[in-house]
From TrEMBL, chain B:
BP GO terms, sorted: auxin-activated signaling pathway; SCF-dependent proteasomal ubiquitin-dependent protein catabolic process
Alphabetically ordered keywords of this record: Auxin signaling pathway, Nucleus, Ubl conjugation pathway
Keyword Nucleus carried by entry: yes
One Pfam entry name: Transp_inhibit
Protein name (Swiss-Prot/TrEMBL): Transport inhibitor response 1-like protein
Subcellular location: Nucleus
Biological or metabolic pathway of the protein: Protein modification; protein ubiquitination
Gene3D superfamilies: 1.20.1280.50, Ribonuclease Inhibitor
GO CC annotation terms, alphabetical: nucleus; SCF ubiquitin ligase complex
Main location as per UniProt: nucleus
Family annotation (InterPro entries): COI1_F-box, Leu-rich_rpt_Cys-con_subtyp, LRR_dom_sf, Transp_inhibit
CDD domains: F-box_AtTIR1-like
């Protein structure tokens, strides 16, 4: 549970001085189980707004805000309601001060999706005159970066096969050893290879006719399975113990030919 | 009949041939004496089909299809473009069974609030089931327009393989695909004329040089838009592509194309009508002398639309002067420029109809716009700094100026930090042609900053005076009164957007009971609960969707709705799976309700509950 400083809303000087900072701070705060500190922080968030030129107007015209504040302080029993109503769910809830009967949800974190501006339009202040031809650093880097997607139960890495334009993803944690992985790769790509350039829907037939992709690991087949490790080196799959492989593999590749020049490439 | 056929354009010739095929049926004549002969019906149907070819508006066609079964059939056979506003409202199979001769498909998925991170990323709207169905049913498909759909590389590959005559691909706000998918489309769709990526999220995992994949010998490309792509492209390939695409009219490049490169492209394509300029800033270490941009722009005599300016160095703006007098559309919404930098450009843009700009130009910049652009139809003012603040660079002053100068305004999107009722009322009086009015006061619950009153009267005036209004988005401090105005006067309104507004259930009731043409309603963070939800029961099957997030509707309330109206799907979901222990709140995080001919969808992720 985090502790945060208590701010006295009646202390004009202090609030005024630390106006901006306190707003940032209040935006940074994590929600904690209800305590007497909480309402005051929320109040401060409001009172920061009131420290504008329109301070008096704001407070007078939105009398409902005042009622709401009283309600918050007065009804401790209800605090849990609006705290938990949205708190741990992320940023969705908004500060709803409009009416005393309104939702008691309050969240001092920045409001998600507000104002309704698409992400491509955000951060224009900083990026507009900055370096023009950024390359890797400018990548969205969002959901699908080059890093494998790792959760507790899965480890998805990209796998691409020569001759198949579109890569796939495999979950390394769902295989127990190299043989498992090898046959999974075979199944995954067999149908795709057969379907290359075909329009007809007789793909199932083709799948059965195509021979299996074997010899991925031992150099005997038409294809060879390689991977890129955490240092960016290209390695032959099967050299290291399975667990070590899982922890270091970043991407997989199924090559049509194997030659020593493909290995150890950075 | 033959005269009509001769007058048809080339595009319709194919359809006429298709309809002409139906006339073969009339040759099958039953013997005389059979009064229930199908002969007269068939004649009527054929006539109808040939007439219906000229009917393009989908709303008109919907009306036609309701006349009787015969008209329904005829209409279904002659509809060449289908528009599906919600991909879950109908299954691909059902659509394909009704409309069999389709060349163009418009398909929309997620609701608009998904753009603002209010929807979890794996919610749905997958293109896959559609492309698989269309691959069999619509072999002659030529055009595809997808908005807010999840499209994978595989889907693009199926599409590229299946439609031999494919011509136009437009992906708006889509995600799920990358360069590999683009490469397949470029290489396999040899008839491609339009390849537009608009606000799409394209992944670069595969790092495929897709621009090199277009046909070597020459392309039919007329439009290539990829300004939303957030990673570098192979410029040499692009240059080569432009050189061998003699029909190219629209080109919008991304911010990884600098001024020097832009110049080279413009020299190759002076026939462009629509140019997206990329970064509009020079490369870091210019080697050669500065390119003669002014000549390049002067050479583009047909240019009517200008955009890009992603990292504008204002010193180079004067290069666009030669085209200002002709352009009808100007998008400066990524250009951080001041009023003084805008003025010399805008004062020449007499024909401007569409203008998108950042609020960095301030009220002063907007005044300059109002002074020159008398023909302005659409204005969008975006915030350069989207955080809540007391004062901002644009305000009621700018809005007032625009209302006085641009009387033909039809559509406005305006972000600001403060506003007055007076300015909004003034706009309602000066701009009677307004169809879309979207005002976003970034500071939530902000009243009129000069009178301290709620913004009710301003928005009330808009719905009252703008008789053509179909789309409205409100903001600022609003009481239930504002909603009563909307319900009372907004009789043509189809799309409404509410956020942080209203006092009680009454607000939503007014709207649901009053706005009989309402189709799309998106609400967030308003104090509307179950009682308000119930007041719309009579209307939900007429709507495309209702979205309510962080309001006061309960699970029970949603369940009641689900039980009482058939053919409406009620989805409730939470953003974050983690529920705090002991949480008893019955309040629903997000309610998304839409009409559908199908049952609950099978592809809903775990966090979505369909009631």
């Amino acid at each position: 549970m985090e502790r945060y400083p208590v701010r006295d809303i009646n202390s004009n000087k202090r609030s005024h001085e630390t106006g901006h900072v306190s707003q940032d701070k209040s935006l940074e705060l994590k929600l904690a189980p209800p305590g007497e500190n909480k309402p005051l922080i929320s109040l401060h968030y409001i009172s920061h707004k009131s420290h504008s030129n329109d301070k008096n107007k704001n407070l007078m015209s939105s009398g409902t805000k005042r009622d709401f504040l009283d309600t918050i302080i007065g009804e401790k029993g209800r605090e849990r309601n609006w705290l938990t109503g949205s708190g741990d769910q992320g940023y969705q809830s908004g500060v709803n001060l409009g009416a005393p009967n309104s939702s008691k949800r309050m969240d001092v974190r920045p409001i998600v999706g507000w104002p309704p501006v698409r992400s491509s339009r955000r951060n224009l202040l900083s990026s507009s005159n900055s370096s023009k031809l950024e390359t890797d650093s400018s990548k969205n880097g969002g959901k699908k970066g080059e890093k494998p997607e790792i959760t507790e139960d899965s480890l998805f890495v990209k796998i691409k096969m020569d001759g198949v334009p579109i890569g796939r993803k495999v979950d390394l944690k769902s295989y127990s050893d190299y043989d498992n992985l090898s046959s999974a790769v075979d199944e995954l790509f067999r149908g795709l290879l057969a379907a290359q350039g075909e329009i007809s829907s007789s793909e199932k037939e083709k799948m059965e006719k195509t021979k299996t992709i074997t010899g991925l690991l031992d150099g005997r087949g038409d294809y060879t399975l390689v991977y890129e490790d955490s240092e960016g080196d290209r390695m032959l799959v099967g050299d290291v113990p399975w667990q070590m492989f899982i922890s270091s593999a970043k991407r997989l590749r199924v090559l049509k030919e194997i030659s020593s020049s493909y290995l150890r490439k950075i | 009949m033959s005269e009509a056929q001769a007058q048809m354009s080339e595009d319709d010739a194919d359809l006429a041939a298709a309809a002409g095929g139906a006339s073969i049926r009339t040759a099958v004549v039953t013997t005389g004496g059979d009064y229930s002969s199908p002969y007269p019906d068939q004649v009527l149907e054929n006539v109808l089909e040939n007439v219906l070819i000229f009917l393009t508006s989908r709303r008109d066609r919907n009306a036609v299809s309701l006349v009787c079964k015969s008209w329904y059939r005829a209409e279904a056979l002659t509809r060449s473009e289908i528009y599906i506003g919600n991909c879950y409202s109908v299954s691909p199979r059902r659509a394909a069974e009704r409309f069999r001769r389709v060349r163009s498909v418009v398909l929309k998925g997620k609701p608009r609030f998904a753009d603002f991170s209010l929807m979890p990323p794996d919610w749905g709207a997958h293109f896959a089931p559609w492309v698989i169905e269309m691959a069999e049913a619509y072999r002659g498909l030529e055009k595809l327009y997808l908005k807010r759909m999840n499209v994978t590389d595989d889907d693009l590959a199926v599409m590229a393989r299946s439609f031999g005559n494919f011509r136009e691909l437009v992906l708006v706000c889509c995600e799920g695909f990358g360069t590999a998918g683009l490469a397949v489309v470029a290489s396999k769709c040899r008839q491609l004329r339009v390849f537009d990526l608009i606000e799409a999220e394209v992944s670069d995992d595969d790092e495929v040089d897709w621009l090199s994949c277009f046909p070597e010998s020459g392309t039919c490309l007329e439009s290539l838009i990829f300004d939303c792509v957030e990673f570098p492209i192979n410029f040499d390939a692009l240059e080569n592509l432009v050189a061998r695409s003699r029909s190219l009219k629209k080109l919008r490049v991304n911010r990884f194309v600098n001024l020097e490169q832009l110049h080279r492209l413009m020299i190759l394509a002076p026939q462009l009508t629509d140019l997206g300029t990329g970064s509009f800033s020079p490369q870091d270490h210019p080697i050669d002398q500065e390119p003669d941009l002014v000549s390049a722009f002067t050479a583009c005599r047909s240019l009517v639309s200008l955009s890009g300016f992603r990292e504008t160095v204002p010193d180079y703006l004067p290069a666009v002067y030669p085209v200002c007098a002709n352009i009808t559309s100007l998008n400066f919404s990524y250009a951080n420029i001041t009023a003084d930098e805008l003025k010399p450009v805008i004062r020449n843009c007499h024909k401007l109809q569409i203008f998108w700009v950042l609020d960095s130009v301030r009220d002063e910049g907007l005044q300059a716009v109002a002074a020159t652009c008398k023909d302005l139809r659409e204005l969008r003012v975006f915030p350069i700094d989207a955080t809540e603040d007391n004062v901002g660079p644009v305000s009621d002053v700018g809005l007032q100026a625009i209302s006085e100068g641009c009387k033909k305004l039809e559509s406005i999107l305006y972000f600001c930090q403060q506003m007055t009722n007076a300015a909004v009322i003034s706009m309602s009086n000066n701009c009677p042609d307004l169809v879309v009015f979207r005002l976003c006061i970034i500071g939530r619950y902000r009243p009129d900053h000069s009178t301290g009153e709620p913004m009710d009267e301003g928005f009330g005036a808009i719905v009252k005076n703008c008789k053509k209004l179909t789309r409205l988005a409100v903001s600022g401090l609003l009481t239930d009164k504002a909603f009563s105005y909307i319900g009372q006067y907004g009789k043509l309104v189809r799309t409404l957007s509410f956020a942080f507004a209203g006092d009680s259930d009454l607000g939503l009731k007014y709207v649901l009971e009053g706005c009989s043409k309402l189709e799309k309603l998106e609400i967030r963070d308003c104090p509307f609960g179950d009682s308000a939800l119930r007041s719309g029961l009579h209307h939900y099957h007429n709507m495309r969707f209702l979205w309510m997030s962080t309001c006061r509707v309960t699970r029970q309330g949603c369940r009641e709705i689900a039980q009482q109206i058939p053919r409406v799907i009620v989805e409730v979901f939470r953003w974050n799976q983690i529920l705090e222990e002991g949480e008893k709140s019955d309040l629903v995080d997000t309610l998304y309700l839409y009409r559908s001919l199908e049952g609950p969808r099978a592809d809903a992720p775990k966090f979505v509950n369909i009631l």
